């Protein structure tokens, strides 16, 4: 406890060092100025200012010009006006047992099996993965796969994605009262399902966006594509003034469920569920008052130049010609290394001076005394960040980042709860997590939230936002009817969940 108090005192002194020095100096200067007389001012003017007017005038003009140039050329703020997470209908809820039945029906419907599916080893493997995944019994599956026999067709896949995107956008437009024709920039990301016409064209057609909208469709970029889409929209908003940018993040389950026997490809079936999010960004100054957040930083890290990183998550055919996404055994090491590189870039941008100084001292100490100092100092990101939204890619992903960043259970509560309630919804999971924090009433004015997304390639992307007000949950939030039941305690041995009491309610 003493060491914690000493560190907090050190952090306070270093962070407020300028103020601690500035106010005494101001008091001294004010005291001196108070004693000045009219004769002293005349003497100062005639003895110094009048004889150095040629020097002072250009300096003053240069200062004014530099200030005007900075104000005119600095990037305009990007505001998050509102966002909406899609909540599938209740008839699409898929318990673990129901998901196992979907797997069975999909394999049985495979023409190569001639209507038989009697190998139980794969079922036992999937059941173990499901029970240890951190997913609960209220996640959602696509309607096409819930039918018997399941519809694993292109038409069913299109229906799934259109339902998610249109559902999220209708709720977003309803909550913001923004006319779709006011949208100037559109970015849609879906990694595994990219039909022709594109999904961005489908949005334009459905909501009748204007003909000069700048639309983009991002494919094949994995679960981190949501932050990539935000970063792209941010850059476009810095160029195109006084407009709205619409970002849509989703993934498709129907067309990409794997029906083969390769275990490295079967794991993804256990984690991914239906979900999507729509985000409305603005660079209009008048939107600041009604916006929830302002975008502070985006940092993107790509380690795809390394072969091991490039191949750790890869779509391809198995030995029987069935398409799936394989996860290599190197994925944990690759993810850890990529996250460290991303943090090394983001850290200097957000960490307070006290943490930067401690890291620099240990860095130099390790260079000079390699044998005595074994590890670099791990900065305390909780001094800079109030809330964390770690991509709900799986229980192992959350565990690793919780340990490496030195986070407490409450810091990863949103991620674990999202994984349990909605599963891995790919690029949209970080928005379900942000909605969870808002639903709990924890987002206060000035709070900073860090969204961390991981994806194939291999990529780690971060977005940092600052709350402009005390943020309340949006209308029709995905957590509206179940927030009181979270967080839940997961029994790692049995896979069962137990609801904790929150605020006197269960």
Topology:
Elements: H1 2-15, H2 17-34, H3 38-49, H4 53-73, E1 79-85, E2 93-94, H5 96-108, H6 121-132, E3 139-140, H7 143-146, H8 154-176, E4 183-190, H9 199-207, E5 214-218, H10 225-239, E6 244-250, H11 263-271, E7 276-282, E8 293-302, H12 307-311, E9 313-317, E10 323-327, H13 331-350, H14 353-368, E11 387-390, H15 395-404, H16 413-422, H17 429-439, E12 448-455, E13 459-467, E14 488-490, E15 497-499
Parallel strand pairs: 4-5, 4-6, 11-12
Antiparallel strand pairs: 1-7, 1-8, 2-3, 6-7, 8-13, 9-10, 12-13, 14-15
Helix pairs in contact: 5-6, 6-11, 16-17
What is the distance, rounded to the nearest whole angstrom, between the alpha carbons of the first and last residues? Answer: 33 Å
CATH architecture annotation of the largest domain: 3-Layer(aba) Sandwich
Q: How large is the share of residues in beta strands?
A: 15-25%
CATH superfamily of the largest domain: Thiolase/Chalcone synthase
**Name of the CATH class of the largest domain:** Alpha Beta
Low-confidence stretches: 498-506
Give me the side-by-side strand order of the main sheet: 5-4-6-7-1-8-13-12-11
Look at the helices and sheets and give the structural class. alpha+beta
Task: Tell me, briefly, the overall form.
Answer: globular
CATH topology of the largest domain: Peroxisomal Thiolase, Chain A, domain 1
Q: What profile does the largest beta sheet have?
A: 9 strands, mixed
Radius of gyration: 27 Å
| Count of the domains | 3
The beta-strand count equals 15
Percentage of residues in helical conformation: 40-55%
Tally of separate helices? 17
């Amino acid at each position: 406890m003493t060491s914690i108090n000493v560190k907090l005192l050190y952090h306070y002194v270093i962070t407020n060092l300028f103020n601690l020095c500035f106010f005494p100096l101001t008091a001294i200067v004010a005291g001196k100025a108070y004693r000045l007389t009219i004769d002293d001012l005349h003497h100062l003017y005639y003895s110094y200012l009048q004889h150095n007017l040629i020097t002072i005038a250009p300096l003053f003009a240069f200062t004014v010009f530099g200030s005007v140039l900075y104000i005119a050329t600095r990037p305009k703020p990007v505001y998050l006006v509102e966002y909406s997470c899609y909540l599938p209908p209740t008839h699409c809820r898929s318990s673990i047992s129901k998901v196992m039945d979907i797997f069975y029906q999909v394999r049985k419907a495979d023409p190569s099996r001639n209507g038989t599916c009697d190998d139980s080893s794969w079922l036992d493997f999937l059941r173990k993965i499901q029970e240890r995944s951190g997913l609960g019994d209220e996640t959602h599956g696509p309607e096409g796969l819930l039918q018997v026999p399941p519809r694993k067709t292109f038409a069913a896949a299109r229906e799934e994605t259109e339902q998610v995107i249109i559902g999220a956008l209708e709720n977003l437009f309803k909550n913001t009262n923004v006319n779709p024709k006011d949208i100037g920039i559109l970015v849609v990301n879906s990694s595994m399902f990219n039909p022709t016409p594109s999904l961005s064209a489908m949005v334009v057609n459905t909501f009748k966006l204007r003909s000069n909208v700048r639309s983009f469709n991002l494919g094949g970029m994995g679960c981190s594509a949501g932050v990539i889409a935000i970063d792209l929209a941010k850059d476009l908003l810095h160029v195109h003034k006084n407009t709205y940018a619409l970002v849509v993040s989703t993934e498709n389950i129907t067309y990409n469920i794997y029906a083969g026997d390769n275990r490295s490809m079967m794991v993804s079936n256990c984690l991914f569920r239906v979900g999507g999010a729509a985000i409305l960004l603005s660079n209009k100054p008048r939107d600041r008052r009604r916006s929830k957040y302002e975008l502070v930083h985006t940092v993107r890290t790509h380690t795809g130049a390394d072969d091991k990183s490039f191949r750790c998550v890869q779509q391809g055919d198995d030995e029987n010609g069935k398409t799936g996404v394989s996860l290599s055994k190197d994925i944990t090491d690759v993810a850890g290394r990529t996250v460290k590189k991303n943090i090394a870039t983001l850290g200097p941008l957000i960490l307070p001076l006290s943490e930067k100084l401690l890291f620099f001292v240990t860095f130099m100490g390790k260079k000079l005394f390699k044998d005595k100092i074994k590890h670099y100092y791990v900065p305390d990101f909780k001094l800079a960040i109030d809330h964390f939204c770690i991509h709900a890619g799986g229980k192992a992903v959350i565990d690793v980042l919780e340990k490496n960043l030195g986070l407490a259970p409450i810091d990863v509560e949103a991620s674990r709860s999202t994984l349990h309630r909605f599963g891995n919804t790919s690029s949209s999971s970080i928005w379900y997590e942000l909605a969870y924090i808002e639903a709990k009433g924890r987002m206060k004015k000035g709070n900073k939230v860090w969204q961390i997304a991981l994806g194939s390639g291999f990529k780690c992307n971060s977005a940092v936002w600052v709350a402009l007000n005390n943020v309340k949950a949006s209308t029709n939030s995905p957590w509206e009817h179940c927030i009181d039941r979270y967080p839940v305690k997961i029994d790692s041995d049995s896979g069962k969940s137990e609801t904790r009491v929150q605020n006197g309610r269960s």
